[in-house]
Amino acid sequence: MILKKFNTMYSLLRDANKYGFISGHKYLDNEDLSRIERIVYRSNSDAESDQHLVESYENKFSSFFECKNNIVSFASGRMAFYSLMRIMLISPGDEVILTGFTCAVMVNAVLRIGAKPVYCDIEKDTFGSCPLSIAKLINTKTKMVVAQHSFGIPCNIQEIADICKKRGVFLLEDCAITFDSKIDGRAVGNFGDAALFSTDHSKPINTIIGGCIYIKDDSLLRKMRDYRQEIPSIDQDRQINLFEQFLFENMINRECDTIVRSFQNVFTVFKRQLIITIKNKRRKIYLEGDNFNPTLFPQLHDSNYCNYPYPAKFPAFMAYIGLIELERWKTERENRKQILASYIKTMVNFRIDIKEVLPKSYFDDHLEIVPLRFVFSNRRFNIAYKSLINTFVDTEAFWFEKPIICCPHDITLMGYNAGDAPLAEEIGAHIINLPCNLNETVRVKNKIY
Ligand SMILES: Cc1ncc(COP(=O)(O)O)c(C=O)c1O
């Protein structure tokens, strides 16, 4: 019996380790891939068709929210955030409140603008932004509050919205790592003045890289569209690089029905990769991080330079992938919810007191959680336990172990001082979070639920 339970857990975790946490569009067939390839190779030369694809994607994305047609896409979430601050004329001397439990690329967007990032804390039951902590930080310099929903769990957004409304501060919901979760039937993203989404390859909707912003106010929306019109596109060579990355991730994740097909895939990707490597000897394949401010920290420029336009338009081939992802989202969201249930059931099987260990929000009937990751933080789960899980899931799998993740430098350079977000520090030190996009066949095979 114990052996069977262990086997179940092992299969679940081993599958998560297939290629980290990236699901790689394994549902696409060769015909889909060829269609995407055609868009990449014609990209930037058939502007009308490209624009049509991007508009269709934006329309479809906005159908998840209360105001229709109010989405503007960019090549990443951070660029969408940066662009919003630009059109709102946020500038040096202004403050933007973010949680300390965020990613360095968000902070860097604020630093690029020249404004000051100010850090609020999180709440232990949601892992999201804390209303009380935000209320304490708002002052006359505050131009925007960014409220983050984490791991698929809605934060106490209504309370934050009430505070922002009372104090006259613009509220941006950061939905980068929470898509389509609901509070009393209302989806996150609908509570603030605007909402930010990331669609990079680790997020619920995967377009390799990408992000978009949902804006309620029509005049601000118009300004954003005008601004987006003026910014550069990612050049075709780099789009081809990104397409290669997409093919690689797809190949790794595909359930190949024959050995021949898998060899074919390996060969095609290898051949293309070789050509690209030779052509762009020094070019990196992936759109790297952007985790420092090149103007403020020129001394760090060499090691982490940003080799793509910032901000940039969302490439059309990614919009096409996004359309497919959104079309199948219903299936994906159910899959994710079932995987969360199976993680919890596995814990119960191991006689772990889930009420003690898991965040309260998992038991809140007002919430519909569409999980990005299954998350908990508890002192009981010490380093030894984490290492055990790490033998099955790659170590990068634990997100937000420290404040301001993905910052390769001292976070004081980002204006974060120890103790700014004490709960984020404490919770991060004991956090465990696992992907919720595992292979369906593994679950069925092991009859997990
Ligand atoms: C919470 C959060 N917000 C925003 C972003 C920015 O998204 P992007 O990588 O698309 O710029 C990230 C990136 O992972 C994130 O974790």
Provide a compact summary of the structure.
Helix content is 43%, strand content 12%.
Q: How does this structure look, described?
A:
The chain has one domain (about 1-449): Type I PLP-dependent aspartate aminotransferase-like (Major domain) (Aspartate Aminotransferase, domain 2). Helices cover about 45% and strands about 10% of the residues. Helix 3 packs parallel to helix 11. Helix 5 (about 105-115) links the parallel strand 3 and strand 4. The strands form three sheets. A seven-stranded mixed β-sheet has the order 2-10-9-6-5-3-4, with helices on both faces. It has a three-stranded antiparallel β-sheet with strand order 8-7-11, with no helix packed on it. The chain has helices at about 1-15, 30-40, 45-60, 75-85, 105-115, 130-135, 155-165, 220-230, 235-255, 260-280, 315-325, 330-350, 355, 385-390, 420-430, 440-445, and strands spanning about 20, 70-75, 95-100, 115-120, 140-150, 170-175, 180-185, 185, 195-200, 210-215, 365-370, 375, 430-435. It is an alpha/beta fold. The protein is built from 16 helices and 13 strands. Pyridoxal-5'-phosphate binds near residues 103, 106, 174 and 177.
